[in-house]
Write a structure and sequence with these properties.
- The chain has one domain (2-486): Amino acid/polyamine transporter I, CATH 1.20.1740.
- The chain is built from 23 helices and four strands.
- It has helices spanning 2-15, 18-34, 38-41, 43-50, 62-73, 76-89, 92-117, 130-138, 141-157, 161-174, 178-193, 196-225, 230-241, 252-267, 274-278, 286-315, 339-347, 354-384, 392-411, 414-438, 440-455, 464-467, 474-486, and strands spanning 120-122, 125-127, 319-321, 327-330.
- A hairpin with a 2-residue loop joins strand 1 (120-122) and strand 2 (125-127).
- Helix 10 (161-174) runs antiparallel to helix 18.
- The longest helix is centred in the last third of the chain and has 31 residues, at 354-384.
- It is globular, with a radius of gyration of 22 Å.
- 56% of the residues are buried.
């Protein structure tokens, strides 16, 4: 296992080297500046677009696609990822997660808008994603296949952090052995994914709003008890982010690196994974889905991740270690970086209940993420193997395969689980961000078309010919349906 961990560490270092951090920032800035800060100017339209109704009764609604992507985004990264970012980057990492949320909203808009523009209809359902828009938009089928492989690696093979975090939380709270949690998770996951995409959509659209409200409610309890400390915590975050804090001042580089890394992992902006889920929505204009997905980044990072960070920092239940391994701050002894920080924070306020409550909530968050991962993986397989959607045998075999990493994640170490996730995330990011840079002119055309119609007082309807966009013929049929409704 030590040899395997060393190999994974090598790939993690290569994939998450400085260039990937720079390119993540560059893409966010490119779309923020190029589209004139739309992610701030169009907040109201972001919310309204979530409730867009579909003209096609067979397709999924915008809300269902939103719930599915929030299910994929809001998970282990929000509870465990924030804790590991603080442990390795200090409180300043939280600030850089916020920065990446603003920039990531623009990146997310781009990749999800493109997924809508170039989506296809497969067996009565819309399907699409990064592979599809790379092939049809750039004419690079081989590059689309490279992404599909990286995405499948990320979501269909290396999905170990979610089960690992659930197993740790259940052991901390109830003393349940990791392998037993693994068996239970495999059984529940098998039941849900056996129902197919429509079953997954129904599950996530019901559970996501509930779990977010429950978690935010718990956070408010901790914030309420520590309300007088809130200004000091925000000051600590800002000082640490810019090297002004006495303890964490020397960790600016780590704060930026881990803030961006965990920010990308949590929000999935630029990973190319949410476009598969976003493509299923039936809307009148691709930009509407882009707006809802920009909003989902805000929900994920500015809302849920911030809630976790404030809980941990207010309670002081965290440890910080620098790159050399020296302990700079120890607020909760004997606890490894991860879910224990969050559990300890809530337990400091609601004694005896913090550990089990966070364990149950983490199970909900992480499980919905796993369900979202399955949908993403199937879209990748549909792209790579045209016969997959027709082959029951292939679908059954993949469902069995998908369950194996769930059990492995439960019995693995936290370090091993996160290394797997970081490698999968990094590989997906490289391919997606490169594609999104080259497709900026297309996204700008789509946005300009949406904004012009919106400012003219119309409900925007997309016709690719009006924007000079090719290989998006499905949209002519969609536009005809919406125009019939208007008449």
């Amino acid at each position: 296992m030590e040899v395997l961990t060393s190999i994974l560490n090598f790939f993690d270092t290569v994939l998450w080297s400085s260039p990937l951090i720079y390119i993540s920032i560059f893409v966010g800035l490119l779309y923020t500046v190029g589209l004139k800060g739309f992610q701030v100017r169009y907040l109201k339209q972001m919310v309204n677009s979530v409730f867009e109704k579909s003209a096609d009764s067979e397709s999924s609604t915008s809300f269902e696609a939103f719930a599915l992507t929030v299910a994929a985004r809001v998970g282990t990264g929000n509870i465990v990822g924030v804790a590991t970012a603080i442990a390795a980057g200090g409180p300043g990492a939280v600030f850089w997660m916020w920065v990446m949320a603003i920039l990531g909203a623009a990146t997310s808009f781009a990749e999800n808008t493109l997924a809508q523009v170039y989506k296809e209809k497969v067996d009565g359902m819309y399907r699409g994603g990064t592979s599809f828009f790379v092939k049809k938009g750039l004419g690079l089928g081989w590059f689309g296949t490279v992404f599909a492989f990286c995405s499948l690696l990320n979501c269909g093979i290396l999905h170990t952090t979610q089960p690992n975090s659930i197993a740790d939380a259940m052991y901390n709270a109830f003393g349940v052995p990791h392998w037993i949690v693994g068996v239970i998770m495999v059984i529940i996951a098998a039941i849900i994914i056996s129902g197919g995409l429509k079953s997954i959509i129904r599950f996530t659209s019901k559970i996501v709003p509930i779990m977010c409200l429950l978690y935010l409610g718990v956070t408010l309890i901790v914030l309420g008890v520590n309300i007088t400390k809130i200004p000091a915590v925000f000051a600590l975050i800002f000082k640490s982010a810019f090297g002004k804090d006495a303890i964490f001042g020397g960790m600016v580089g780590s704060a930026i690196a881990y803030g961006i890394k965990r920010g990308v992992y949590s929000s999935e902006a630029g990973m190319g994974t949410t476009p598969q889920a976003a493509a299923i929505a039936g809307v009148s204009h691709p930009a509407k889905v882009g707006l809802t997905q920009a909003l989902s980044v805000y929900v994920d990072t500015l809302l849920v991740c911030t809630a976790t960070a404030l809980m941990i920092l207010l309670a002081g239940t965290y440890n910080v270690t620098d790159a050399a391994g020296s302990v700079l701050y120890e607020g909760i002894s004997g606890v490894n970086a991860g879910v224990g920080f969050t559990q300890g924070a809530l337990d400091s306020v609601i004694h005896g209940f913090g550990y089990p409550m966070i364990a149950v909530m983490l199970a909900l968050f992480s499980f919905t993420t796993l369900v979202g991962c399955f949908n993403i993986s199937e879209s990748d397989l549909i792209y790579m193997f045209k016969g997959y959607s027709k082959s029951k045998t292939a679908q059954i075999l993949f469902k069995i395969w998908f369950l194996i990493p769930i059990f492995i994640g439960c019995i693995s170490s936290t370090e091993f689980a996160w290394l797997c996730a970081d490698i999968g995330t990094g590989a997906s990011c490289w391919v997606t961000l490169i594609a999104v840079i080259f497709m900026f002119p297309i996204v700008r055309k789509v946005w300009n078309d949406y904004e012009k119609q919106f400012k003219d007082g119309k409900d925007p309807i997309f016709r690719p010919d009006n924007c000079g966009i090719k290989n998006a013929d499905l949209w002519n049929e969609i536009a005809n349906e919406y125009e019939k409704k208007v008449k």
